Amino acid sequence: MLWRTALISSCRLLPSCSHPAGRSFRWSVIPSAHRRRSSMDPEVPAIDPSCTPAESPASGMSSDATGSLETMASEDLFPGETVVREGKASILFPSANEVFYNPVQEFNRDLTCAVITEFARDLLAQRGVRVVVPGEKEKVLVSLSEESNEAEEKTGAEELNVTATAGEKCEHGLRVLEGLAASGLRSVRFALEVPGLQSVTANDFSSKAAALIARNAQYNRVSHLVQASCRDASMLMYEKRGKKERYDVIDLDPYGSPASFLDAAVQAVSEGGLLCVTCTDMAVMAGNSGETCYSKYGSISIKAKYCHEMALRIILHSLDQRAGVYQRYIQPLLSVSADFYIRVFVRVFTGQATVKNSASKQALVYNCVGCGSFHLQRMGRRIDNGKHMKYSAATGPPVGPECEQCGQRHQLGGPIWAEPIHDQEFVQKVLSAVSGNPSRFGTSKRIEGMLSMVTEELEDVPLYYTVDNLTSTLHCNTPPLLQFRSALLHAGHRVSLSHACKNAIKTDAPPAAIWDIMRCWEKENPVKREKLSQTSPAFRILSTEPRLEACFTVREDANPQSRKRHLTRFQENPQAFWGPKARAKAGGGITTDLQDKRKKCQNKRKNQVTDSSQLKNFPCKKFKQGMCTHGDECCYSHDADQTCEEKANN
Question: At residue 614, what are phi and psi to the nearest 5 degrees?
Answer without folding.
Answer: -80, -20
